[in-house]
Automatic annotation (TrEMBL):
GO MF annotation list: ATP binding; metal ion binding; nucleotidyltransferase activity
Residue ranges that the Swiss-Prot or TrEMBL entry lists as coiled coil: 530-557
Organism: Pundamilia nyererei
InterPro entries: SelO
Signal sequence coordinates: none
Pfam families for this protein: SelO (PF02696)
Keywords noted in UniProt: ATP-binding, Coiled coil, Magnesium, Metal-binding, Nucleotide-binding, Nucleotidyltransferase, Transferase
Xref: NCBIfam families: PRK00029.1
Entry's transmembrane regions: none
UniProt family annotation: Belongs to the SELO family.
Cofactor(s) listed in the protein's UniProt record: Mg(2+)
Biological classification of the source: Eukaryota, Metazoa, Chordata, Craniata, Vertebrata
Name of this chain's protein: Selenoprotein O
């Protein structure tokens, strides 16, 4: 069994400078020694309020079933064979009052944090919820792989800012991938190494980017295996069962309130607790009292309290999706069961950070219609809020809910514009034309195939026009243009990006059907999908008639035009300012702390996954370190761990169960690129479903 760091065993504990005779003779210290030797995970103080306040399923029947009149069902996590740590987030563990190094070196750590062994005070359970999936009500869903372990009391001395965001005074902890629950449907309740690493890394990456999110404390793998057909193409393979420890104030979501839904008019499905309106009231009381205490205190009238609660959820959701858009994050599966009631990013599945800017970016290869594309996210979140409002009725009067929903778009636009002004360094004035400048920037990025993250990061290097600046305007604009041209796509990259995803014959049939049989066409496709395919064809035709030099000239013209406008706007920032140098320095500081240098691009995650699948966990740990400081340069952490090191890792970071695959892990065929660079060509082949 491999652990990160020194291995400890029951018969191999030695204290430097202390003789065995002295240890044997210290009988009077036995009680203290026992307390000190206990796992720190065994000392966690649980207070499982959710199970006390919300209905618990009285049945202990095993297997998948409908759960009526309950919010939770007791479950028994299924142990893993030889669990071991892949990586631990020390900062996430600190939320629970745990020392990351102690957890890493704890022989029981992988067992406790995979659910293989149950901690004292833990009460494993699975949460019942429903959801609208891709626009259709799916009925009962629930925690099919996640397992609530309990709620850990916030340790004394925790950061007041964290307490402000989590006023309940407890952190709910879950293990995801711990086996079957009543909600597992046709699945086995297990998760594998690749999906677990992706969730672990992105949960922490989002936190350090400043985006509200659930946290991930660790990822554990094992010798237990399951069969997975990754691309649903008949090529199944055995993969290692792995488990992520998830941390949040609560994992209650929009879909938690949909268990009371009457039969849906389209699917015919209904929530398992339909007719049990008193439970809806209990859930609302619990959520508001625990996580929105100010609303509970300030609104003695129940209806006004519920309206205020919904308004706050709308605000938090608008703020969250605005932050996603500003870092180029695409969730991939924005079903109502994946929307947090606290406005947190929840459930990291086929997510993706945008590389080349494309408003139609789809990160989930299963999303054929583009329902959850990048540009659709704000509208989809509004749609989901509408479904939440329906689920809260009659506790939330529909007319009052509709009035609150009308506020969503203005809230979103306000948060988005506020974030974008910071990204562009527009801090002193709010010019009405800023929205036009931002729109033109995004259009230019799209037309030139510019990298979203790196283009924004480069903007702080564009100088403000000042009287002291000896460089001529033309030279300054050319210098800035050359800087941004480096982030633009090549002709071949744009051709590949604009290749239609639909077979030409299929497209021709659908176009004919749209004319001859519109009703049938609506059943199997939609006009927006066809329009996107036709637009790609048109762009591809133009690109086929263009040379690389012609493209580069056109890209330079586009950027020159925008940069000229941007520098004029920057000049207005300096008007009336007595200390121009201080304004310039503040602008650069804010921009460089808002525009990340590094994000979790798919190829970075894929490198870490492939190394881990070959038994080398060092790259997962290294990527975590890089993502913990996304706005800073970290000397020595510019490239993957295997570059120049032959793929070897430090003692304790290689999985002992993978000796046969060490040769594969020592030779990575791909050319390495720095973490802050544009993605390599092979990254386009990554498919996430």
């Amino acid at each position: 069994m491999a652990y990160l760091g020194p291995r400890l065993g029951p018969s191999r504990v030695f204290l430097s400078g202390v003789s065995a005779l002295r240890l044997v003779s210290s009988a009077g210290m036995d009680d203290m020694g026992l307390a000190m030797s206990r796992s720190s995970l065994e000392r966690l103080e649980f207070d499982n309020v959710a199970l006390k306040k919300l209905p618990l399923d009285p049945s202990e029947e095993q297997g998948v079933r409908q759960v009526k009149g309950a919010c939770f069902s007791r479950v028994t996590p299924q142990p893993l064979t030889k669990p071991r740590f892949v990586a631990v987030s020390h900062q996430a563990q600190a939320l629970l009052g745990l020392d990351g190094e102690e957890v890493v070196n704890d022989p029981l750590g992988p067992e406790y944090l995979s659910g293989s062994k149950v901690m004292p005070g833990s009460e494993p359970a699975a949460h019942c919820y429903c959801g609208h999936q891709f626009g259709q009500f799916a009925g009962q869903l629930g925690d099919g792989a996640a397992c609530y372990l309990g709620e850990v009391k916030v340790p004394s001395g925790q950061d007041p800012e964290l307490l402000r965001e989590n006023p309940s005074g407890r952190w709910e902890i879950q293990v995801k991938g711990a086996g079957l629950t009543p909600y597992s449907r046709q699945a086995d309740g297990r998760k594998v190494l690749r999906s677990s690493i992706r969730e672990f890394l992105c949960s922490e990456a989002m936190f350090f980017l400043g985006v509200p999110t659930t946290r991930a404390g660790s990822v554990v793998t094992s010798d237990s295996r399951v069969i997975r057909d990754v691309y649903y193409n008949g090529h199944a393979r055995h993969e290692r069962c792995s488990v992520v420890l998830r941390i949040a104030p609560t994992f209650i979501r929009f879909g938690s309130f949909e268990i009371f839904k009457p039969a849906d008019e389209f699917t015919g499905r209904q929530g398992p607790s339909y007719g049990r309106d008193e439970i809806r009231g209990q859930m609302m009381d619990y959520v508001i009292e625990m996580f929105y205490p100010e609303i509970q205190q300030n609104y003695p009238d129940r209806v006004e309290r519920n309206v205020a609660f919904f308004r706050e959820v709308v605000l938090r959701t608008a703020r969250l999706v605005a932050q996603w858009q500003c870092v180029g994050f695409c969730h991939g599966v924005l079903n109502t069961d994946n929307m947090s009631i606290l406005g947190l990013t929840l459930d990291y599945g086929p997510y993706g950070f945008m590389d080349r800017f494309d408003p139609d970016f789809i990160c989930n290869a299963s999303d054929n219609s583009g329902r959850y594309s990048y540009q659709a996210q704000p509208a989809i979140c509004r749609w989901n809020l509408g479904k939440l409002a329906e689920a809260l009725a009659p506790e939330l009067p529909p007319d009052r809910a509709e009035a609150v929903l009308e506020e969503y778009l203005d809230l979103y636009n306000r948060f988005y514009l506020e974030n974008m002004r910071k990204k562009l360094g527009l801090l002193k004035k709010e010019d009405p034309e800023d929205e036009i400048l931002i729109t033109k920037l995004l259009q230019t990025m799209h037309n030139t195939g510019a990298d979203f993250t790196n283009t924004f990061r480069s903007l702080s290097l564009i100088s403000c026009p000042t009287e002291e600046n000896s460089e001529g305007e033309e030279d300054s604009v050319k210098k800035a243009t050359d800087l941004l041209i480096e982030q633009c796509a090549s002709l071949e990259e744009l051709k590949a990006a604009n290749k239609p995803t639909m077979d030409p014959r299929e497209l021709a049939v659908l176009l004919s059907m749209a004319q001859s049989n519109p009703a049938l066409f609506q059943m199997i496709s939609d006009r927006a999908t066809i329009a996107r395919q036709l637009e790609r064809l048109s762009k591809l035709k133009d690109l086929m008639e263009t040379t690389q030099e012609e493209l580069k000239t056109k890209q330079a013209e586009d950027w020159t035009s925008w940069i000229t406008q941007y520098r004029k706007r920057l000049a207005r920032e300096l008007e009336g300012q007595s200390d121009v140098q201080a304004v310039q320095e503040e602008r650069v500081r804010v921009m460089d702390s808002t525009n990340p240098r590094v994000i979790l691009r798919n190829y970075i995650a894929q490198n870490a996954i492939e190394a881990a699948e070959n038994g080398d966990f060092s790259e997962v740990q290294r990527v975590l370190k890089v993502l913990e400081k996304p706005f800073s340069s970290q000397p020595g952490l510019e490239l993957p761990a295997w570059v120049g090191g032959g793929g070897t890792s430090a003692e304790g970071e290689r999985d002992e169960g993978e000796e046969q695959q060490q040769e594969a892990a020592t030779s990575m065929p791909r050319n390495p690129v720095p973490y802050d660079s544009k993605p390599p060509a092979w990254a386009n082949e990554i498919c996430v479903t």
